[in-house]
Amino acid sequence: MVRGTGLLLLIPLLVGLGSAVSDLEPPKNLRIINEKEKLTVTWDWMNTSPDDVNVNFTVFYQELGMAPSEIPGCEHIEEYYCIIPSELPDITENYTLHVRVETHHGNKQSDSVSFQSMIEWPPIPSVDLMPQEFLVSVKLITPVHPSYANYHIVLQNMNSSTEEKIRPNLHSFEILYKDLKADAFYCLRAQIHDIQTRKLSPFSEARCFTALKGLPENLRVEGVNTIYLLKWDWDYEKYPDVTFSVKRRYKPC
How far is CA 110 from the centre of its chain? Predict the structure, then answer.
């Protein structure tokens, strides 16, 4: 009878323990803040049991094909963040990372997130130039882009070493030849300004082009009686030594 009573008392205890573990929330919303100086992982966690007063977290990282390892300094901590030691990850490898919550009811593991330690923050943009007939089309490309950021562009006239700063609203924009000095050699560099962290990325590699002469503008035909005049506008102060030629073209009906 005593042995049977003990068995009956043990079953409710196991059932209660299993219920507590199943109700335990895992860490969520893992975020890796990747800055030039350090890597920091943060997470959210909801305590669904008021009895859980002693709650700890452990952060694990895992290389492809290897077993998970605890991150030194991120074991059994109470904070909801941890700084990953700079000497830990190999900058040439990709990793996954997860966080385990530890309570007296049991443990629960978060979903894994991927990270690569070699990405600087803000990332360095690359510049793509596409010269056209009367303008240069510029496209800025980044591997990862901050949510709140803008671009700083420096356009340098290599003939005179003068610089012009451009603040485009979009990642693509145009530079008109008529706004530049004809036949001058220009180089363009770009960097990202992360508004939240107030950090500037290093400048991109310079991309260069030669400014061509602009095109006549405001082409129009004015008629007086039976005489028709073809007119256009030109900036003679900027480009004084030019000549023009007019060709007649037939448009098929």
Answer: 25
First CA to last CA distance, the chain: 109
Query: CA 34 to CA 201: how far, in whole Å?
Result: 13
Q: Which two tokens stand for residue 223?
A: 């008629």
Per-residue pLDDT tens digits for 47-89: 877 666 789 999 999 888 889 999 999 999 999 999 888 777 6
Nearest alpha-carbon partner for 97 in 45, 41, 57, 143: 41
What span, in angstroms and rounded, lies between the C-alpha atoms of 30 and 44? Answer: 7
Query: Would you kindly state where each structural domain of the chain is located, as residue ranges?
Result: 23-116, 126-210
The pair phi, psi for residue 229, each rounded to 5°, is -115, 130
Its pTM stands at: 0.46
Identical topology for domains 23-116 and 126-210: yes
- The H-or-E segment that residue 246 falls in is none
What are the backbone dihedrals phi and psi of residue 23, each rounded to the nearest 5 degrees, phi first?
-85, -10
Q: Would you identify the CATH topology of the domain 126-210?
A: Immunoglobulin-like (2.60.40)
Of 117, 63, 48, give the one whose Cα is nearest residue 85: 117
Q: Class of the 23-116 domain?
A: mainly beta
